[in-house]
Amino acid sequence: MSQDHQGTQLSRRDFLATTGGAIAGAAATGLVGQAEADSHAEGGKPEPGKGGTVRFATRSDAVGLDPHRNVMYYVSYPIALTTQGLLDLNQKLEPSTGIAEEWSASDDLMTYKFKLRKGVLFHNGREVDAGAVKWNFEHIQDPKASHSFTRSALKNLKEIQTPDKYTVVCKLKAPSAAFPANVVFYPCNLMAPDSLEQANEHPIGCGPFKFSKWERYEVTVLERFENYFETDDQGNQLPYIKTIEGRPKKVDQVRLTALRTGQVDLIDNMAYADAASFPERYKDQFQTWDVPALGTAFVTFNLEKGPFSYNHPDGKLLRQAAAYATDLEAIGTVVFYNRGEIATGYYPTTSPWHASPEGWKGKYDPDHARFLLKKAKAVGTKIDLMANDSWPYMQQTGELLQNMWSEVGFKVNYQIFDAAVLRQKRKAGEFHADSAAGSYRFDPDGWFSRQIISTSPLTKQQSRFRNEKADQLIAEAIKTGDKAKRLGIYREIEDIVNDELPVLYTHHLTLLEAGVTNLKGYKPSISGSPNIKGGGLRTAWMA
Predict the structure, then answer these.
(1) Domains recognised in the chain with CATH numbers
(2) What residue spans carry the Basic and acidic residues bias annotation (predicted)?
(3) pTM for this entry
């Protein structure tokens, strides 16, 4: 069903106007949170287990607890802090040593050898050895036991060998430079092999925090894992924090109000409108962290059915008309309040995988869009545009697209659906354009081999893009070990995408995290994850 969001925006402004003074006053008089009152590290210095309690309000929560059956989204699911993969992630979300203290690849990228760190434990005391890794990978590969997204990360894994207790050898079906990125904790996190029966009620992982309690969209309680393997520069075991209380709050304003009134100590995001003024307005009361690479927003065109499709004689011309009619700067200003970057490809400039400096070759030119529609004798063409009801920026972008495209001569029917209906629409191809987005991928193959290559199930259910040259380049990139060469290949692929327009990249998504001033040592990854090597909530504490 279609929705009008103007009322929501006005009510939000009214709410801020009527409550802002009272809330700001409460903060200024020093509302002391539970974490601040109950837990002070001596001398304000971090000490393992004496880092206090952090109440963490997030946008989302897990659907279930079994780490192989459910995706543990690494940015805003509190439960993700219980997980760890064969490899870890650093602040830039590059695969890094973790449980595997070193790894190597064969020259043909068909074999990967991982040397495991000795003494790494699951939360139940069992050692994370080669046998445990092998069991996890084989369990993930079982279609009856795992989520399709998790399983897809290991689809190229042919055989797992364990020549000794601390060595894992992975034999692949095809060369892959991306395999290290597929064995980090999102999505391939490791759980204790002897804990399968309790995975749905009390998961046993090997991450920095261990599970204590979960009530979906109410509270997640995690306790410090006293035997976690990572240490700080002085050799002290991480993490410092004793307890994390996850407090998922889906509505942006509710989450922000909880921070400002002392109900929580850290929030993973706020609305773009609030993010534009909050850092300066509340700089003496709260601290903030910019997250520049959450993901990328884009418009997906249906290339199988309708006016934008291969079946329409002027399908590409009409996609170009829609692109010329799209004012990306206006979207950046109105929807994102000038936070983040206009997208030229899938990765922003802050990512080590930024590969496309040009973007859509055409500029915003509504007159040229009208010319193309007239040339194709397509003025008045009906367009079914849809968006997901879960994310305001997708809906707001859709509203702007409806107006922009209508102004040049399209007749746009814009509808907003929940996730279940949206999936059905995509699968059946019952749409012409979709205001969508994708999360940050640790390796470009996670995007191009899932949503651009023609053989991917997601491509077949979304854009239906078919391009032999792009397929060949994606296949070449995955078997290229040299990163600079891979980037060059991905730039060629992005040029094809920006010319053929199966998707029109619009904007790079950002977050603004905020927390109380006595939260020390916290710094999220470039996409917002609080669970990263040498950072995030592993190195944070309450002073």
Answers:
(1) 51-265+518-542 (3.40.190.10), 294-510 (3.10.105.10)
(2) 37-48
(3) 0.87
